[in-house]
Amino acid sequence: MSSPVSAPLWVGRSVALVGILSVAFSLRSAIAAISPIVAQISADVPLSSVALGVLGGMPAIFFAVSGLIAPRLAHKVGLEAGIIIAVVFMTIGHLTRALSDSFVVMLIGTALTLLGMGIGNVLLPPAVKRYFPDRIGLLTAMYSVVLSFSASIPPLIAAPVADTAGWRVSLGVWAAVAVVAVIPWVQLWARRRATLAAEAHELAAARAAREHEAVRGDEPFHDDAPEIAEARPNIVAAMWGSPVAIGMTLAFAVSSLNAYAMFAWLPSILIDTTGATPAEAGTLLSLYAVMGIPAAIAAPVLLRKLPSHGWSIFVGVAFFVVGYSGLLFAPSTLTWLWVICAGLGPMWFPVCLVLINMRSASPDSAVALSGFMQGIGYAIGSTGPFAIGIIHGALQSWTVPLIVLGVTSLLGIVAGVLIARPGTVDEHIRARAEKPKRS
């Protein structure tokens, strides 16, 4: 496929740029907003360790559910309206959490917020494809950096805001951020509706003119005008017919599993194996998290420079292996280096976000691919913290858990081989559908 001619980033689409980045800034705010102020919240809303465990395990689960919901939502109401609904869910969820007086209400608010975030996760890549088909790599890198940066803000400001204005304000302030994010999407939705209405009017006029010519006998009438539709029928299930879609899903799943497991257990691993203090372990966890920024910047470059798309996954495998090997065999030596390598392993996440648009032919198939990959990927990823916790609890050692994580990262080799296949998911699905006809 030929690449679209590059156009200036701001000209004619500044609202779309602001909309994509502002939504990206809202997609991680709920995940780390509670843990720093548990003590203040518990004074009004008792939160047991079990309750905190439930809240901590919800993101991956709801992101997985959103992968199934988002494509249907976009098909039903349109891409722009789907993003507006996602941001509205986030806003209501943030406010519900801030006003909660029981764990059940807190749970409902968290569920609404995460559902909105999950839908936004799925719909942002096709939004990039619709508005920036000539700058897919750049825009995906930009919003991936914003995602990583925004994940670090709630832990930094949650406690100071709670100390100054109360924990309800600390949680509720993110509703204001979401409200700001919805403004450009309302404008984009209105523009889209006007454009579709104008196209429908032109088609109706052309059809009427041809009918008139047919009545006069000048030429036969054939109603072959293209249909106006926001999205094609849901093709999520058809993604099973594309090796590239399966490879991307496998890469996303393994990346999510490792990232969630490390976010949950890296401090404990470091404290037990290196003798680090909780503060030192927390600092190294922040170092792990911030590796998402250079990974997001590097992803489009790797996809453009390496021989095939599969090689970008192989690079991530190498980082995983080096990081886990260091933590396993020499945890107290160059600990920061092993943490950096382990943190660069999940670079598969931004790589897969870029590939959603590079390996699909239209916003419709991009929505389907995004939902397929993220729905299955996050579902598998959600098992990571639980599995590693169970293994460690049974063996009282971090050796086997680190080996298990290293082995899962090797599945990236299989994912890379599948992703290296040429063609788009649309071409793979079409070829699979045509096979019986050819035989």
Detailed description of the structure:
The chain has helices at 14-26, 38-42, 49-77, 79-99, 103-131, 136-165, 167-216, 243-274, 278-290, 292-305, 309-329, 335-344, 348-358, 363-381, 383-395, 399-419, 425-438. The protein has 439 residues and is an all-alpha fold. The protein starts with 13 loop residues before the first helix and ends with a helix.
Give the N-terminus to C-terminus distance in angstroms: 28 Å
Give the helix proportion (percent range).
Answer: over 70%
Please outline the major beta sheet: none
The count of helical stretches stands at 17
Which descriptors apply to this entry?
Growth Hormone, Chain: A, 79% helix, mainly alpha
Gist of the model:
With 439 residues, this protein is an all-alpha fold. It has 17 helices and no strands. The longest helix has 50 residues, at 167-216.
Task: Describe how the helices and strands are arranged.
Layout: H1 14-26, H2 38-42, H3 49-77, H4 79-99, H5 103-131, H6 136-165, H7 167-216, H8 243-274, H9 278-290, H10 292-305, H11 309-329, H12 335-344, H13 348-358, H14 363-381, H15 383-395, H16 399-419, H17 425-438
Helix pairs in contact: 1-5, 1-6, 1-7, 3-4, 3-5, 3-14, 4-5, 4-7, 5-13, 5-14, 6-7, 6-10, 6-13, 8-9, 8-13, 8-14, 8-15, 8-16, 9-12, 10-13, 11-12, 11-16, 15-16
